[in-house]
Write a structure and sequence with these properties.
The chain is of the alpha+beta class and 893 residues long. It contains 25 helices and 21 strands. Strands 10, 11, 12, 13, 14, 15 and 16 form a seven-stranded mixed β-sheet that branches. Strands 6-5-9-8-7 form a five-stranded antiparallel β-sheet, sandwiched between helices. It is rod-shaped and about 235 Å long. The N and C termini lie far apart (166 Å).
């Protein structure tokens, strides 16, 4: 059977062909069995039927024929036979008498319709029978019967044909139904097969329509679901592969070195950037240990495999070595790698050459240091200039105050007032330069304290009203009623802006008026924005110059023959101060008609003011400027100052105020004095030999800790830069006074630490006449600084003559020791002394020596010191002559 199936190529048949062939074969076999069984039954039935027919004919004809035979009615017999022979299956009847006469009747010939094989298969025989007619023992003859099976065979054949037709029709219907069913059932299957084939060829968008029998629908749905999952997976894989390809392309084309290592620190991939950076090809690098990139001195601490296996990320700057042994600066970023199953498989490293960046950073660092050094040098220069300028200014203003408090005639008082006015103007210029320097350095702070706007504005403008009246100008001011009187801001800086703007308006206005108006621009619950107008009827500012006037050192008229003076810093400082107070400044001007400056500032609003309006009057808030009273109660005051001139001035001022003064020259002596004596206050210079002021205060505060006492200390220095006051207060000082010392500032500082002190009037000392003498030193300037106090001048000369040899010896020793610091310190001290005596050439040489010591230029220091020594040798006789001359004049008087 198997061989038959193989020969038929059954395995190559389609499902439809197999189903049709199998069903047809089963149907044909079944039909053949059924037909065979049916025919076999029918054949048996026909054989039996023929035998019964024959018996029936015999039973019917035999009596009749016998009767007719007895009477000898042959005609009737013949008729009867002919009638009976017409019946089916009857082939022939014959009557033969005893004489041999035959009366026969034969049926019409029946043709054979069935094929011979069928006749043979049916095997129905012809039936013949002969009966003797014997009546009463007399023989009358014999009757022969013959039946043919052809009608039965034809009937069987016809029935078979009918059955075959019905079978064929049934088979056709069966196959039609089967085909229909298969067509309806297999079409989705064909679609499924076709879809699966396309899907297998890579068309992952194939989906089968959900049609067909329920069993097929389940299969189709399962296929479509599988296709969706596979398509998503394939899409994800494609995207992943695309990303991997893109990443691989990026990695390969990247100019950065990118490589990977396994868990043992062995390099597994190496891109072109790594080849270029380290000089190893892929063949040379892959399979080698990561350690080959690490300098030998760092390999002991490498532990690359251990770190990689830990899965830690790494980002740092380090050093690596190239193939030629060059060590380069590298910035690396390393991260763990994981395989498709999420298992830690190694590390990916990105390395960037930062050698050039490091070089640039180093250059920038050096540039930054140089800039910071330049900035410090600038600050130091400004501070030193402040110190050097304010030190003689201290003498000028201080001794002028002392002389003005004495008995003077009208001419002397006018002259001294002119001196004081000129000194204050010079101090104003110095302050402008210092303020500008502070603002440029970002070291100027804006205070936020309560003050009275109306009182402060009135006080400020009243101080300017005299200048306006002297020029015949009218000065008016007004504050809008909605503006609260008590505001929070910086009264000092606001006064500085107003004084600058109004002062300029008066200076540049020849007739008419100057007005100040304050309006409320906007306000909130706790703050407000004020708008200030300063208008004048002066000369005006050209339109093309208006944008320049707020720039540093710029003026509308820069010609050398200009009528009005000034540094060109006033409006610049005003503009910067307004900006620091949160506002802006602008100008509107027309030539020969006047100018209108407007500026805004942000201020706080005193929340209590509205409530206080309904309560009894209280003292007004602090105005812009407050003049202190002078303390009456005598105090024991320690002065620590190394400069002889400043020593004399401080002692004279304090004694003039009625205080007892103890003088020391350095911080160490000040500490010892505080430990051994009781003082009400200490005036401490910051820059002194042996021990500076800040170090001395720190030692005093440390000594006070276990004793439960506190000695007030006021800083007294010519340094006036932003941060000096804060540095002093942070260092333990209680107050701060800048040089040149203003008597009111000194009194205010003393009052701040001894608030119970009362007002007093200082004693008066007579002023001697000035000798008519012109030595090599600038005697006129020297006497002006000392308020024409010849006795004080003689004292100062005596102090200088005593100190000069030691100063010269200290400078000479410092030069010979080639110590820049000692040269700087000793020259600085000597410079203050000769500068106080108006020995300008000696002071200039001392300044040059100080600068050489600071910069470490020892060759220049040696050269300048030789010149300074020669100048000092010329100076000493001149000072001796001045001192002796004053002494002779005093004796003769």
């Amino acid at each position: 059977m198997h061989r038959v199936v193989s020969r038929l190529g059954w395995q190559n048949w389609s499902l439809t062909a197999r189903l049709m062939a199998g069903s047809g074969a089963a149907l044909i076999i079944s039909a053949a069995v059924l037909v065979y069984t049916s025919l076999h039954t029918e054949v048996d039935a026909n054989r039996k039927m023929l035998e019964e027919r024959l018996s029936d004919e015999v039973d019917f004809l035999l009596p009749t024929i016998t009767e007719q035979a007895v009477i000898g009615d042959y005609a009737n017999i013949e008729r009867l036979l002919k009638v009976r022979v017409k019946r089916e299956e009857i082939n022939k009847f014959a009557w033969t008498d005893e004489q041999g006469n035959v009366v026969a009747a034969a049926a019409d010939f029946t043709s054979k319709e069935a094929p011979d094989w069928f006749v043979r298969w049916v095997n129905l025989p012809s039936l013949e029978r002969t009966h003797e007619i014997n009546v009463g023992g007399v023989r009358y003859g014999k009757l022969s019967f013959q039946l043919t099976p052809l009608p039965a065979i034809n009937a069987l054949w016809s029935g078979l044909l009918d059955k075959l037709q019905i079978f064929i029709l049934g088979v056709g219907i069966f196959f039609a139904v089967i085909i229909q069913i298969l067509t309806g059932g297999l079409t989705p299957l064909y679609r499924l097969a076709t879809g699966a084939q396309k899907f297998g060829q890579g068309d992952y968008s194939v989906r089968i329509p959900a049609e067909g029998a329920p069993e097929m629908l389940d299969s189709i749905k399962a296929f479509n679901s599988m296709a969706d999952s596979i398509e998503r997976l394939v899409t994800s894989l494609r995207e992943s592969e695309a990303r991997k390809r893109l990443l691989a392309t990026i990695v390969e084309q990247s100019d950065q070195a990118i490589f990977t290592e396994d868990l043992d620190g062995v390099i597994t991939s190496w891109n072109a950037g790594a080849e270029e950076l380290f000089g190893y090809t892929q063949e040379e690098a892959i399979g080698k240990a990561y350690a080959m990139l690490v300098p030998s001195e760092e390999k002991e601490n490498l532990r690359a495999g251990e770190r990689i296996r830990s899965g830690q990320k790494l980002s740092c700057e380090t050093h690596m070595v190239t193939s030629n042994g060059t060590i380069i600066d590298i910035e690396i970023s390393a991260a763990p790698m994981f395989d498709d199953n999420g298992v830690h498989s190694g590390e990916i490293t990105i390395a960037r050459d930062i050698t050039e960046r490091k070089r640039t950073e180093e250059q920038l660092l050096q540039a930054k240091k140089a800039a910071e050094a330049a900035s410090r040098a600038k600050s130091d220069f400004v501070a030193n200039m402040s110190h050097e300028i304010r030190t003689p200014m201290n003498g000028i203003l201080g001794f002028t105050e002392l002389v003005l408090d004495s008995d003077l005639n009208l001419e002397q008082r006018d002259n001294l007032n002119a001196v004081k006015s000129s000194a204050e103007s010079l101090l104003g210029v110095i302050n402008d330069i210092l303020d500008f320097s502070k603002i440029e350095a970002g070291r100027l702070d804006i205070e936020s304290i309560p003050f009275s706007l109306r009182d402060g504005l009135a006080q400020t403008l009243k101080s300017l009203e005299l200048r306006a009246r002297q020029k015949g100008l009218k000065l008016t001011w007004d504050v809008a009623s909605e503006i609260p009187d008590s505001i929070v801001g910086d009264p000092v800086r606001l006064r500085q802006v107003i004084v600058n703007l109004v002062g300029n308006a008066i200076k540049f206005t020849e007739k008419g008026e100057v007005s100040v108006l304050v309006e409320m621009e906007s306000h909130g619950p706790s703050d407000a924005r004020l708008l200030f107008w300063v208008r004048d009827t002066g000369i005006g500012i050209p339109r093309e110059k208006q944008h320049l006037i707020f720039e540093a050192f710029s003026q509308a008229d820069t010609s050398t023959t200009r009528e009005y003076g000034g540094t060109g810093l006033g409006l610049t400082i005003a503009s910067r101060l307004v900006g620091l107070m949160g506002g802006s400044i602008a100008v509107e001007s027309e030539m020969d008609k006047g100018s209108a400056f407007r500026f805004t500032i942000n201020v706080g609003v005193n929340q209590e003011e509205g409530r206080q309006a309904c309560e009894p009057a209280s003292p007004p808030a602090q105005p812009f400027q407050k003049h202190p009273t002078r303390p009456r109660a005598a105090m024991r005051i320690l002065v620590a100052e190394d400069n002889p001139v400043n020593q004399k001035l401080a002692v004279r001022l304090l004694e003039k105020l009625g205080h007892h003064v103890h003088l020391v020259e350095n911080g160490e002596a000040a500490v010892e004095a505080v430990r051994s004596q009781l003082f009400d206050a200490v005036l401490m210079d910051l820059q002194m030999p042996v021990m500076g002021g800040l170090a001395a205060v720190a030692a005093i505060r440390e000594w006070e800790k276990d004793r439960g006492i506190h000695v007030p200390v006021i800083a007294m220095t010519a340094h006036a830069m932003q941060g000096d006051r804060e540095r002093c207060l942070e260092g333990g000082m209680d107050g701060y006074v800048s040089k040149p010392i203003d008597i009111n500032a000194l009194v205010a500082a003393l009052q701040s630490i001894v608030p119970s002190a009362n007002d007093a009037a200082p004693p008066v000392a007579p002023a001697p006449a000035q000798p008519a003498m012109k030595p090599g030193v600038n005697l006129e300037i020297l006497l002006d600084r000392l308020d024409n106090d010849r006795a004080l001048l003689c004292d100062l000369i005596g102090v200088f003559m005593a100190e000069c040899p030691k100063c010269i010896a200290d400078m000479e020793a410092a030069v010979q020791a080639k110590s820049g610091e000692k040269i700087h310190r000793s020259a600085h001290k000597f410079k203050g002394s000769v500068g106080s005596l108006a020995a300008e050439q000696a002071a200039a040489l001392a300044l040059a020596l100080e600068s050489a010591g600071r910069s470490g230029d020892l060759v220049e220091a040696e050269r300048v010191f030789a010149q300074l020594k020669e100048e000092t040798d010329r100076l000493l006789p001149q000072l001796t002559e001045i001192s002796e001359s004053f002494a002779r004049n005093a004796a003769s008087a």
